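$ fold --in a.seq
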Amino acid sequence: MSLMKTNEEQLNRKHQLYIFTNRVDWGKFEKEFLKHNNEKMGKHTRPIRLMTGLLILKHLMNLRDETVVE
């Protein structure tokens, strides 16, 4: 048995962001954003869920771009 906890075990399941992220239909965002995927522009460098989540977090917490990236 490992003494180290997995990332999932370390998270506070009662935290508002944990609850929020499990209520979002991330597949819907993926589907909608993939409609705008253009082969000429190249492949996305970051997962759509990450980029969408950061944008939502920025607006929910009223953060600057630089703060969200940190």
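$ fold --in b.seq
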Amino acid sequence: MTAQDLPQAEPERQPGWFLVLFALASAGGAVAFVPLLTVLLPERIASLQGREDITALAQATFLGAVMASLANIGVGMLSDVTRRRRVWIVAGLVASNFWLLQIGKAHSISEVVMLVMLWQVGLNLMLAPLMAWAGDCFPDSQKGVLGGALALSPALGALAGSLVTIEGLIPAAARLPVVAGLVTVLVLPAVVLGGGRKRPGLMVARMAAAPDGVAVAAHPVRRMWAARFLVQVAEGGMFAFLLYWLRSIAPDFPEHSAANIFSLVLVGAVPLSLLLGRWSDRHGRPILPLAGCALLCAAGMLVMAAAGSLTQAIAGYVLFAMAAAIFLSLHAGQTLRVLPAPEHRGRDLGLFNLTNTLPAMVMPWLTVLLVPELGYAALFVLFAVLALVSAGLLATLSQSPKTPSA
């Protein structure tokens, strides 16, 4: 088969059962980090310090993100070279669970920070080859619905956060072991049953496979990267400090209520993500839903900035969080469409992962600098502006006739 023939040979679609198992495996990664970073880590720091310590949380978040960035790129490259994604996934599952359990045994803030860094290495040992494996397996005709299915990840992560914080249900000492068990149950089925799922047609460079012999241009990749980065700056800021922000409005706001709101919003985003993903597959408009969601993110942030009551604050957060969840899941699927070099898929996804980790490194410190002086409202206005820029980048890309997804 010649390179010119390749565009007519659409790789075989994956069966529904594998799409479901892969979505659950991806959700396992979210279950690993969402409960820890949103609730359990702030709790652990507070128990060691005797109070909530925003600076200590920022330090742990920052250094953990540094390690995550480096590990994701490095492991992605290793999985490219070995072409054995599933072996790396299992190794990462074992390592991340081990270090997760050690965090609960830490006796000082410095020990917590070190263990979070090691845990991030193990976690990305699992996540980097997992997403590259998706690129090896799912054809472009399923990228939208794949992205929609990935919305299950933050939803299950948030539900796990709610589960482990229900008072009286799980003892504090058992919370991290329960999280580790849930991660294992979610990740292993896809790895065990997913042999032979790779599609040879997806291992052909985009320069050969693009319609009419047109190579995938560099600018869609850069715009997709920048658009996700800008939304992630806002999402990352809220991810780390949601509980603290709500308590700045209502000092007695309980931690389990924050986790429950987070869970309900993300669960609600799953069916909407699937519908929009399927729509984008059928109509060949993979970028348009992303631009719309970025606009809604900006709107939600402006409502939060103007909120004068807890009800208004929660309403703005619901709008923002749901739009951001849909955006990030669909974007993850469409990123696999624009990457030009399958032989470097793991490495390139590692570079895209910087859109997740760089905001986590920057935003905690920016929050520490801005919030004490100007309040959360100023921060949210900044986030809204960034989301508007993201929407502009994507709207321009979606109008281009050379967009690879057209």
